[in-house]
Structure formats: structure tokens, C-alpha cells
Amino acid sequence: MLIKTPLASAARECEITPEAIYLSRRRFMSAAGGALALGAFPAHAEAERYADVEPGALPGWFAEKLPNVHWQAVTAGEEALTPYADATHYNNFYEFGTNKGDPARYADKLEVEPWTVVIDGEVAKPGPVSLEQVVQPHRLEERIYRLRCVEAWSMVIPWLGFPLAELLKRAEPTGNARYVRFETKLAPEQMAGVRSGFSLIDWPYVEGLRMDEAMHPLTIMAVGLYGRTLPNQNGAPLRLVVPWKYGFKSIKSIVRISMVAEQPTTTWESLAPDEYGFYANVNPQVDHPRWSQATERRLPNSLFSPNVIDTRLFNGYGEVASLYSGLDLRKHY
Ligand SMILES: Nc1nc2c(c(=O)[nH]1)N[C@H]1C(S)=C(S)[C@@H](COP(=O)(O)O)O[C@H]1N2
Ligand SMILES: [Mo]
Fold first, then answer.
1. H helix or E strand, kind and range, residue 45
2. Rounded to an integer, what distance in angstroms lies between the CA atom of residue 71 and that of residue 51?
3. 20 to 30 A Cα–Cα from 253, which one of 106, 129, 193, 300?
4. Cα(166)–Cα(170) distance, integer angstroms
5. Residue 53 has what pLDDT?
């Protein structure tokens, strides 16, 4: 999503990523024995599925949720999960740099403990809440979703999270709440990409949803993936996941959730409004001005197995279509 330099950045990423993935695979293979010994998973099948995931200590707020997780609450059918190493080493998180390997390299600097989220705006119960308070009342569900980036690559990721609707209702939105605005943490001393000034983004990263989109049961707040907490590069400790929209809507490392009356100004829309819309629904018939959106590269891929598949309207989540009846999807891209 680098503005004006798409070819240069694409070439660079192709060269860098396979090496990063190769190295991390080797590391995970040697760690695989230890992952099972940790015994953090309630069911044998889950442990098998995620046997190659990096072992590590789990924070209390997460560990206490694991025995009651609703595994595979939503699946992607027969579609294979993207390997953990790819999902955690091919990332967009511009606060840590614009190359796909930068977040995995630099996001460990992000301090995620303690973490506070401010909930405010058109709500009866505003206030700062700790991460523990945000998560505590909710049962975690595993949602295996396709993630389709606007750059025409995609993955299949098993998130752990809960419906955003449940969290918003706790704050008791007023009748004036028509949109939800989300903000990412801004900590330049921890974020090499912010300090570099290279990406032209006016920080903090901001995203937004219409209230009915936010309340849709497919929209989740994610706190984990592959049976673990979120790695920093994937948006620890709390991020949005909206599977029928381009990946840039799924904002990471959230510190503020505001219910508002007016459509919020969002990061990519304000940077290049003719290229990135507020809605950003996945749509194979509405091309990006500089490339087609009809197909996508399902990662991992390579020169010899490009793994190109057709992109589907709403990323295959056709049940959201009723949210947009009467809306011209070409105009409101
Ligand atoms: N704060 C923040 N959130 C962000 C981004 C970002 O640069 N900063 N990139 C977005 C984009 S373009 C995509 S495709 C997804 C990638 O999520 P993943 O790295 O977990 O796959 O995160 C989204 N959320
Ligand atoms: Mo993206």
C-alpha cells in the first residue's frame, strides 16, 4: 500500500520474505517438541493442529479462557490454514516499517503490558478499561477467516476472539451512535516506522465501521491466533478483524474505541481517497486504480507455484450483503 511506488516495494518484498519465512520455519521445527509439552490446549486435536506454533508463557487473562474456547466456531471449509510462520512474518503494520518483514523484526519493542483501552463518545458508560476487563466477560471463539489484503494477497488465519457487538453493548451506545472509530496505540519511541517518517501516514492509525457493520456477528475483537495470544506484529494485545473487508480495516493494537455520530476520517481513505474507500468491501469487480482485484495470491506462494485464486465478493462472506442493499458498491468502494 505504499503510495506511488508499488513496483519497487513489491519487488523488494518478494525477495525478502521467503528468507524470513525459511529461517522462522527452521526455528519452529526445532521448537515443535516443546510446544506440545506445554499442554495449554484443552483438546488433543487442537494441540495437533498447532503443534508447530512457537511455545511461550501465556498471560493469566488468556490462560484462564483457554479451557472454555469454542474451537472452530467458524471455519473456512476445506481451505488450508496459512502456516503460522507466514502469518507472523509477512505483515502490514506500518508503525514498524513498510516491508513485510519489518513488523516481525521490530514489533517486540511494543510494550503490551499493562494495556488500557478508552471507550468513549456516544455511550452511557464511557471510561478507560484494562485489557483484562475488556476480555473478562467474554467466551473466546476460534474464527478461521480468510484475510484479503487490498494488495491482492490473502491468508487463512485461525483467530481467537469474541464478537465486537458484545463489547460495544457493554458501553451502552446512545441513539446518536452511528459509527465506531478505532485508534491504534501511538508510541514513537517503540515504533521505528513512526520515527522514520517514511510512510506519509498521519499517526495514529485510525479505522472505522458503520454501527451495523460493527454489530455484525462476523466482526470480532481478536486477542489471539493459532491457539496463542497475538504476536505483537499481528496487533497485540487487541485488534479488529472484519473478514469481508480489505485487511487495512482490521486495525491493530487498539487503545481507543469511540462511538460517534459522523463517519470518521480513516487513515488510508484520507491518504488516497481515490484508491482506498471507507467501506473497503472485498469486491472482484471494483479494481484498484493501479491493479486488478479479480484475483489474489493465496500465501504462501512462490514463482513456481503462484497459487492465484479468484477473489470473491465480500471475500466469500455473502451473508453481509444485506448490510449494503441500496448502496452502489462501485461508488462506495
Ligand atoms: N495499526 C495498524 N493496523 C493495521 C495495519 C497497519 O499498518 N497499522 N495494516 C493493515 C493491513 S493493510 C493489513 S493487510 C492487516 C494485516 O494483518 P496481519 O499482519 O495480522 O496479517 O492489518 C491491518 N491493520
Ligand atoms: Mo492490507
1. helix 44-49
2. 16
3. 300
4. 7
5. 83
